[in-house]
Structures are given as structure tokens and as C-alpha cells.
């Protein structure tokens, strides 16, 4: 699947298989929110990010309307991905919105802002995947945080 935003000229690629795995992880915690980290690589021109893995958090706090992942073990997992061939890095975050649309909340926007400020994450434009989730359905939306603004990617 490819998502892009014409205004900023950036796009995201993700396999249906990874989306299925993310959906399953989300359903396992339904009706509470759940989430994780997105790992992948950038194209040479930096315009496209290919998301190829997720790291599920070892520790987290979640409720029906909130999700807060911990950082336990994260540095080590990311280092393993970085040192592997091909080298892959942190590219963003995903979380579910059980029984709700995949629209970012104010808290979600603040979280993206904090991620950019966090020195371990060496990227300026992390992506956010929100999965609106019911037991029978799911709706996917990708956003990118760039220059203090959140842009939505359109499915193409
Ligand atoms: Zn949210």
C-alpha cells in the first residue's frame, strides 16, 4: 500500500502483511488502545519511507482512550535493526483508536512533537499511523509531522 501527500511530496509504503500484524496486535488489546514503533528505511532522495517492521512495547499504559508506550528495551531493539543488513531505523509510531475514527487527538499531536524533540530519534519527520478499530473493521490513516505541522497522507 502506498500513501502520499502532494503538498509536501512525501510518501509512505507499507505491506498489507505488516498492516495485518499491526491490526492483530491492536485487536489483542481491544477495546483498549495499543500501539508500537514503526521501523523502516528511507529512499535515497528521502521522499519515500518504506515501513517494514513494528516493535511492540514491553511496557505500556493503556485505556479505551489513551496509550502511552514505555521505552524498556527499545534502544536495544532499534540498535539491532540499525546494525542489520539492510540497516533500518525508527520512522514513527502507530496506535489504535478502538471504536473511533483514525483522527489524531490533541494528545497525539503533542506526542509527535515530543518525539521530534527526543534525541534518540534522529529524524525530523516521524510518521504516525492510526488504526480506527472495531472487532470487524479497521480504518487506516497515516500522518507525518513536519515543520511543526501534521499532514495527512492519502491512500493512492
Ligand atoms: Zn490517538
From TrEMBL:
<feature type="domain" description="JAB">
    <location>
        <begin position="17"/>
        <end position="131"/>
    </location>
</feature>
<dbReference type="GO" id="GO:0008237">
    <property type="term" value="F:metallopeptidase activity"/>
</dbReference>
<keyword id="KW-0645">Protease</keyword>
<dbReference type="GO" id="GO:0046872">
    <property type="term" value="F:metal ion binding"/>
</dbReference>
<dbReference type="Pfam" id="PF14464">
    <property type="entry name" value="Prok-JAB"/>
</dbReference>
<dbReference type="GO" id="GO:0006508">
    <property type="term" value="P:proteolysis"/>
</dbReference>
<dbReference type="InterPro" id="IPR028090">
    <property type="entry name" value="JAB_dom_prok"/>
</dbReference>
<keyword id="KW-0862">Zinc</keyword>
<keyword id="KW-0378">Hydrolase</keyword>
<keyword id="KW-0482">Metalloprotease</keyword>
<keyword id="KW-0479">Metal-binding</keyword>
<protein>
    <submittedName>
        <fullName>Integrative and conjugative element protein, VC0181 family</fullName>
    </submittedName>
</protein>
Amino acid at each position: 500500500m502506498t500513501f502520499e501527500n502532494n503538498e509536501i511530496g512525501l510518501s509512505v509504503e507499507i505491506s498489507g502483511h505488516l498492516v495485518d500484524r499491526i491490526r492483530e496486535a491492536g485487536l489483542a488489546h481491544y477495546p483498549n488502545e495499543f500501539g508500537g514503533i514503526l521501523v523502516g528505511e528511507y529512499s535515497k532522495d528521502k521522499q519515500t519511507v518504506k515501513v517494514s517492521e513494528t516493535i511492540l512495547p514491553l511496557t505500556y499504559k493503556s485505556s479505551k482512550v489513551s496509550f502511552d508506550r514505555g521505552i524498556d528495551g527499545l534502544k536495544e531493539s532499534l540498535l539491532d535493526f540499525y546494525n542489520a543488513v539492510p540497516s533500518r531505523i525508527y520512522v514513527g509510531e502507530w496506535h489504535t483508536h478502538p471504536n473511533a475514527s483514525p483522527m489524531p487527538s490533541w494528545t497525539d499531536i503533542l506526542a509527535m512533537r515530543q518525539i521530534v524533540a527526543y534525541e534518540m530519534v534522529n529524524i525530523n519527520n516521524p510518521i504516525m499511523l492510526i488504526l480506527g478499530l472495531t472487532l470487524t473493521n479497521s480504518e487506516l490513516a497515516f500522518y507525518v509531522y513536519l515543520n511543526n505541522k501534521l499532514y495527512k497522507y492519502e491512500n493512492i
